[in-house]
Structure formats: C-alpha cells, structure tokens
Design goal:
With 367 residues, the protein is an alpha/beta fold. The chain contains 15 helices and 13 strands. The protein binds flavin mononucleotide (FMN).
C-alpha cells in the first residue's frame, strides 16, 4: 500500500516537500493519544528478545533512525511511535543556519538511494536545547541521540569552539552525543576526521560534556565511508585512546560508482552525499574493520544501506551493537521498522540465540 502511495503521490513531489508532509503526518498522529496508541500497537510491536543494552542505555531493540531526518528534535515521540527503537536528532550546529539552497535532496529510485546536500539546515543549538528541556524524561520516553556539527560560517580553525558551544547547551538532554565530522556538505568538515584535528576536538567535547552534566554522557564519533582503510583504523585507535564510547559508521559517500541511474542524471543532480542501497557493501566493510580493530571495546553503530532485516542482521553478527537507517524509510514507509523487527526476531530464534545481544559479533566466531 505504501508502494502505491509512494508511486502515486510522493514520487511526483519534490523530495524535501514529501519529507515535510510525511513528517507532519507522523507528528500529527502522535499528538492524538488514542491514535498514537493504536499506531504504536500496529507498527511497533516489540519482541523481548530484541531488547538490548548499549552505551549504558536500555533499548527496546537495536534499530534507530539515523541523523538528518529530525534535525531539530521536533518529532521524537512520533518516530518512536512508528517503531524506531531510538532516534538520533540533528545534525545541530552551534548557530542556526538555513542550509544550502534548494533543490538539495534527490531520489535515485532505480538505485533505492538518495543524494542530499542539505548542508545542516537546523535551528541551532540554543533553540533545540530549549525544546529538549521541555520534554519529560521518563523510562517510557525514547532514547535520544544528539548529533552535533560545525556551523558553516565558523572557520575550520574555530571549529572546536562551535562544537563545544553545542555540547554545553545540548549534552544534558542527550542520552548519547555524536560528533559528526563526516557530512560532505559543509566545506572542510571532513578534514576534521584527520586524527591530528579529531583528537583535540573530541577531547574538548568530552570535557565540555563532563562540565555540563553530573552523569556520563556517552560520546561517539560518526565517520565517512570514504575514509581510507588505514584512516578508519586510525580513528578506531584514537577513539580507544581517548576513551570514547563508540563509533557510528557510516555517513553518506561522495562516491557515485556502480549506479543504475544514468550518468546524465547524476551529473545534473551534482554535489552531495549518496545514501541508501549503494552504501551497503562499504558500510559493512567499515564495520568489519572497526570490529577487528576494537574487538568489542567500543560500541559500534552501523548505518548505511540497511533496507531489510537481513541487512540489519548482517551488521549485528559482524559486530554492530546498534544499527540505524534513513534512506530505506523513504522507499519503504511506515511499516519498515515492523518488518525489520519481525525479521530480526525470527533470526534470533532461528540462530538459537538467547537474545539479540548474544548474536553481536557471532559471525566472526563461527567463520
Ligand atoms: C536527507 C539526508 C540528510 C542527512 N543529514 C544528516 C545529518 O544532518 N547528520 C548526519 O550525521 N547524517 C546525516 N545523514 C546521513 C544519515 O544519517 C546516514 O548516515 C546515511 O544516510 C546512511 O544511511 P542510509 O543509507 O540508511 O540512509 C543524512 C542523510 C540523508 C539522506
């Protein structure tokens, strides 16, 4: 049914408008108490075997919504209502900014992929912090990750100050905090992945988070799939050295290899980060590399090209404690999480695992 809706309505709409419309419906449904309960019952049934703990947090399952969908933290409860086990909001920058001019989001339907050059359009750390401050924090509110990045107009040399500002404002509301240094749409941002820049940045964010809250806020770094393998290893080593809590891999790619979409169309779309199915193989590869390097000492969150329960399962058995997705949500719609959860439950049982956590990294043991 969603396929029909997608083909008849969304596919013909500008992708960013379609996003706003769909997100509006989700928020609307979650604001009506009876409807919210009903939708949750249908879309978010939870098998106890999928319950998992990571980063010191208890989650109903491993499958979260990746950063970029809810940039300002305006629809967290609605997104949990449709089945996401946790929601990563952002990227949020120190200062508000409009992002790049539209059009800036494109569908590559034949590739089940997206290209975006949104450029961190967001309301800025002060406003998002004020919104998060209003949220009740109870055991039934979803786990919220807060993903932070650099304000475009801030010089690369002053990047640390901008991340620190966001951290001071947002850390106390974050169940976990992500330093995003991997989006391709802020000039120079990805240079911060170089260990010489990343070390001081992560150190400063860690200190700022510790100053802002009495409790430990888990800190993760999100990396690009375009890093060379040695650089992936270097980030892993740095994360261990600094006592980071985890790594999120991966963000979108600047690569355009192996696409079905015509070269002319790709050229017409232009710059931006590619996400969705074409990212699958590299995201798995980066995960395997990180797992080999860190051997369970860091929480690994795998994202990039996850479409099916099988994809999510592959990540889990290759060492991902948590998984996330974004692009396939656009193509598969509101039943996506339900399908992933059902498939994962079946796999946990078929594999004879006690629970999902017992399956993490099991591919290595059996291969
Ligand atoms: C439209 C769009 C906007 C995104 N914005 C962000 C962002 O602000 N911050 C971020 O860390 N990742 C962002 N991402 C990347 C996703 O979080 C994710 O890492 C990437 O899309 C790969 O996952 P997927 O193949 O499941 O989409 C964005 C992705 C898309 C498609």
């Amino acid at each position: 049914m969603y396929k029909l809706l997608f083909d008849l309505v969304f596919k013909k709409m500008d992708p960013e408008k379609a996003h706003h419309l769909a997100f509006f419906w989700i928020r609307l449904a979650s604001s009506v108490p009876g409807l919210r309960t009903l939708v949750r019952l249908v879309l978010a049934p939870r098998d106890r075997a999928l319950r998992t703990s990571a980063l010191g947090l208890d989650l109903p399952g491993p499958f979260g919504l990746a950063a970029g969908f809810d940039k300002n933290g305006v629809g967290i409860d609605g997104l949990a209502m449709i089945g996401f086990d946790y929601v990563e909001i952002g990227t949020i920058t120190g200062e508000p900014q409009p992002g790049n001019p539209a059009p800036r989001l494109f569908r590559l339907v034949e590739d089940r992929a997206l290209v975006n050059r949104m450029g961190f359009n967001n309301q800025g750390s002060a406003r998002v912090a004020a919104r998060l401050a209003q949220r009740p924090h109870t055991s039934s509110t979803p786990v919220v990750g807060v993903n932070i990045g650099k304000t475009k107009v801030v010089e690369e040399a002053d990047a640390i100050g901008d991340y620190v500002k966001s951290t001071e404002r947002l850390a106390k509301y974050a169940d976990y905090l992500v330093v995003n240094v991997s989006s391709p749409n802020t000039p120079g941002l990805r240079n911060l992945q170089a260990v010489s820049h990343l070390g001081p940045l992560l150190g400063a964010v860690r200190e700022a988070a510790d100053r802002s809250t009495a409790h430990h806020v888990p800190l993760l770094v999100k990396i690009a799939p375009d890093l060379a393998d040695e650089d992936v290893d270097a980030v892993a080593d740095l994360a261990l050295e600094l006592g980071l809590d985890g790594i999120i891999a991966t963000n979108t790619t600047i690569g355009r290899e192996g696409l079905r979409t015509s070269a002319a169309r790709i050229e017409e779309i232009g710059m931006g980060g590619l996400s969705g199915a074409p990212l699958k193989a590299r995201a798995l590869e980066v995960l395997q590399r990180l797992r080999a390097r860190t051997e369970g000492r860091l929480v690994l969150v795998s994202v990039g090209g996850i479409e099916t329960a099988e994809d999510a399962w592959q990540r889990i058995i290759h060492g991902a404690d948590l998984v996330q997705g974004y692009s396939a949500f656009i193509y598969q719609g509101p039943f996506w999480c339900r399908r992933i959860h059902k498939g994962l439950s079946a796999k946990v049982r078929a594999g004879g695992f006690r629970d999902l956590a017992a399956a993490v990294g099991s591919a290595k043991a059996s291969s």
